[in-house]
């Protein structure tokens, strides 16, 4: 039994010893939760275990539970709706554990809300327990938050997944997997609940062994069922990104250093995701900001912020970090987590964070990009403890390296256009257009308007904002706007800070 499973059972046992009447368990696998709770009873078959769901009504899960249901409602057990079942439960047998599945779908109803609350004192006195089995990240109604104890069942640990791999090979009558096979399989499965992990593993296994590529594909599909999460499928490494040498060196040290991250979490244009925090009338952005702050602080999560004009390779470097380290890059889209349902946005965010927690096994590196940092809440900026890096327009030497990369990728050549002020994204697009439209590089350039022209004022404002305050992505040290890519001398650093 893994430490996470042992801790969950231990907490549940403590709650039962203390006669806690109302518990909500947030889980991605209800069947696993009910099995863990049952196992925590250490085989005490005399404890009645009963479950309610919207289709089956009340049903006993063991012989004592069946007897309790028969005595309580007889043949009408399957006809009871949520409120009626809760009302009937006030007279259920002593010491009964009553599982209530998917309460988040009905607990906003007044009669259901009251029915849950009414069980508090009754169950406290006679030793029963109502266990609300809800989804990861679900938030209790305000009226219940002081009366219901909330537990989060962790996703399977690496030890549990390793045991699952061995059991699956044994069931398939295949030779015992090697330690390397188990390690690679666990890396691909971590972050999944027990049931989907078992299914994904079984579908990726054949007489020839485990197909790791298929396993990763199915793992990606399973993770992407969580709103707002996608796993980046590009394989570009730092070698395929021209320029930005300082930040590449820094990230390379991070991903290969002590406490190296197990996953890169990429948040694109983070300032837009949190715009309005503290001022939105709905409170959604404020709640999501608070959830992110608490999660990052509780887990001591590291992060860096990339600021700069569009096309300056911020996203390219962030996405290449995972492939360089050989770990997954998870794109974290906060806007896709927002829901029109009350409490839905926070629930989706907490669910996504639980998946990140499981995939990273407690070690994640967050990389956020933004085009303007002024609207980002200061308290959130402080959570990105590894620093803020400014990406300026590439220098001539950097542009030369970028041209070489994309000319080779698109198999184009010839006289290059005047690229003064171009970003890496514009060089890439020029090469792609030349290949796709069968044009020369100079003709392809006639269909491109560099951002240095179309947004000159915004870029200059960004440079002034970054000068003396942020680190440079191209060269080590503090960024200097007077000489893009260079660093400030101590005297000029003091002067810039004063200005």
Helix-strand layout with pairing:
Blueprint: H1 3-17, E1 22-26, H2 30-39, E2 49-53, E3 57-60, H3 63-73, H4 82-88, E4 97-101, H5 110-126, E5 129-134, E6 149-152, H6 158-171, H7 179-189, H8 194-203, E7 205-206, E8 209-210, H9 212-223, E9 229-231, H10 245-255, E10 263-267, H11 270-273, H12 284-298, E11 302-307, H13 314-325, E12 329-332, H14 344-360, E13 364-370, H15 378-381, E14 388-390, H16 396-410, H17 424-437, H18 441-445, H19 451-454, H20 456-466, E15 471-472, H21 490-498
Parallel strand pairs: 1-5, 1-6, 2-4, 4-5, 10-12, 10-13, 11-13, 11-14, 14-15
Antiparallel strand pairs: 2-3, 7-8, 9-12
Helix pairs in contact: 4-5, 6-7, 6-8, 7-9, 8-9, 10-13, 12-14, 16-17
Describe the structure.
Helix 4 packs parallel to helix 5 (110-126), helix 8 packs antiparallel against helix 9 and helix 16 (396-410) runs parallel beside helix 17. Residues 484-499 have low confidence and may be disordered. With 499 residues, the protein is α/β, with parallel strands linked by helices. 46% of the residues lie in helices and 13% in strands. It is built from 21 helices and 15 strands. The chain starts with a helix and ends with a helix. The chain has five domains: 3-152, Rossmann fold, CATH 3.40.50.300; 158-222; 238-390, no CATH class; 396-454, no CATH class; 467-498, no CATH class. Strand 2 and strand 3 form a beta hairpin. The radius of gyration is 28 Å and the shape is elongated. The longest helix has 17 residues, at 110-126. The protein has a seven-stranded mixed sheet, sandwiched between helices.
